[in-house]
Specification:
This protein is α+β, with helices and mostly antiparallel strands. It has 2 domains: 3-224, Hypothetical protein, domain 2 (Endonuclease III, domain 1), CATH 1.10.340; 235-353, Nucleoside Triphosphate Pyrophosphohydrolase. Helix content is 40%, strand content 15%. The protein contains 14 helices and 7 strands. It has helices at 10-24, 36-46, 51-64, 68-73, 76-83, 90-105, 114-118, 125-135, 145-154, 164-177, 183-196, 215-218, 281-289, 345-348; strands at 235-245, 250-255, 266-267, 270-272, 293-305, 309-320, 330-334. The protein has a 4-stranded mixed sheet with strand order 4-1-6-5. A 3-stranded antiparallel sheet has the order 3-2-7, with no helix packed on it. Helix 8 (125-135) packs across helix 11. The longest helix has 16 residues, at 90-105. It catalyses: Hydrolyzes free adenine bases from 7,8-dihydro-8-oxoguanine:adenine mismatched double-stranded DNA, leaving an apurinic site. InterPro entries: A/G_AdeGlyc_MutY, DNA_glycosylase, HhH-GPD_domain, HhH_base_excis_C, HhH_motif, MIG/MutY, MutY_C, NUDIX_hydrolase-like_dom_sf. Keywords: 4Fe-4S, DNA damage, DNA repair, Glycosidase, Hydrolase, Iron, Iron-sulfur, Metal-binding. Adenine glycosylase active on G-A mispairs. MutY also corrects error-prone DNA synthesis past GO lesions which are due to the oxidatively damaged form of guanine: 7,8-dihydro-8-oxoguanine (8-oxo-dGTP).
Length: 354
């Protein structure tokens, strides 16, 4: 056994953790009548999103796409619309691509082995472990940020958890500690522990079911762990966003590229200020988009933060006498119909100015 694990009585640790979980587990919709599809959808939604935010989205999504077959045959724009506001939209596109493969290749049965599951788009080591352990009750580690934090404290790991080598090391330890009797509950118990007790700041150790096993607590350094190097500073991009209205009261909307950030979502036209001066916007829009417009009033400024980039946006009204557009990615749309299209959160916030 690894030296770090010698300090832990593994059977007692498992019992303490699981007994706590059976009494205190959070009532989450994907835990009621669980199946592999629900587990998969919930885990994809929960990536980089808080549980409270996910719950209503999950319920609506399951109502609309109750099986892999429903999601596989759905129109991508409808799926993106259902995801609208959750962010990280590539998760939704990858999920649908993978679900289509499950229908085509595996007769609608989600694979229950590591190799086939890992080959599906958007399923990384954590999601794979979560599906195999939670849905198929296999003793496979599922190591996310919560789990890294909990085990860096329990085992007093003082290496940077942002490093791949540290994640691998912790994954290996979880693989040795996980309950073989009830791996599904074990992994969910660690997630709940990290979410409710072993929190990033001010963990409530006195309520922790595995406090007596925790090396960091014994040495009084639980608040110093985990060690994580700061992410790179985000780049700032400045835009003017144009709410362009024609004489019919229709607005110009634009479909983003099918690759990269916010792929295939709709937005109001954005003019990059690192390429274009404020006084050149009308000319740039004519040259790039074939829209002859007149700038009008200023509406507001908005800032939107992504993991790697910050958009600073000046929202301005503009008008055009055109009724037709010559670019495939652009269209005129009546104000009442805008709700039918999936927009990123930043652009939804602009709709009050229409």
């Amino acid at each position: 056994m690894n030296k770090r694990l010698q300090s832990i009585n593994i059977p007692v640790f498992q019992t303490d953790l699981l007994e706590w979980y059976y009494l205190n587990k959070r009532d989450l919709p994907w835990r009621r009548e669980p199946n592999p599809y629900k587990t998969w959808v919930s885990e994809i939604m929960l990536q980089q999103t808080k549980v409270d935010t996910v719950i209503p989205y999950f319920n609506r999504f399951m109502e609309k796409y109750p099986t892999v077959y429903d999601l596989a045959k759905a129109d991508e724009q409808d799926v993106l619309k259902s995801w609208e506001g959750l962010g990280y939209y590539s998760r939704a596109r990858n999920l649908q691509t993978a679900v289509r493969e499950v229908v085509d290749t595996y007769n609608g049965e989600i694979p229950n082995n590591e190799k086939e599951l890992a080959s599906l788009k958007g399923i990384g080591p954590y999601t794979k472990g979560a599906i195999l352990s939670i849905a198929f009750n296999q003793p496979v580690p599922a190591v996310d940020g919560n789990v890294l934090r909990v085990f860096s404290r329990i085992l007093q790991i003082e290496d940077d958890i942002a490093k791949q080598s540290t994640k691998k090391e912790i994954e290996q330890y979880v693989g040795e500690i996980i309950s073989h009797q009830d791996p599904s509950s074990f992994n969910q118990a660690i997630m709940d522990l990290g979410a409710t007790i072993c929190t990033p700041k001010k963990p409530t150790c006195m309520f922790c079911p595995v406090m007596e096993h925790c090396q960091a607590f014994q040495h009084g350094i639980q608040e110093q762990l985990p060690i994580k190097k700061k992410a790179k500073k985000q780049k700032i991009k400045q835009y003017v966003v144009l709410l362009i209205r024609n004489d019919q009261g229709e607005y110009v909307i634009e479909k983003r590229s099918d690759q990269g950030l916010l792929a295939n979502l709709w937005q109001f036209p954005m003019v990059p200020l690192d390429e274009v001066g404020i006084d050149q916007i009308e000319q740039w829009m004519y040259d790039k988009c074939g829209i002859d417009l007149q700038m009008e009033s200023d509406c507001d400024n908005l800032k939107h933060t992504f993991s790697h980039i910050i958009w600073e946006m000046d929202i301005k009204k503009a008008s055009t006498s055109q009724n037709f557009l010559n670019k495939d990615s652009l269209m005129f749309i009546a104000k009442e119909e805008i709700d039918n299209f999936p927009f990123p959160v930043s652009h939804q916030k602009m709709m009050k100015f229409l």
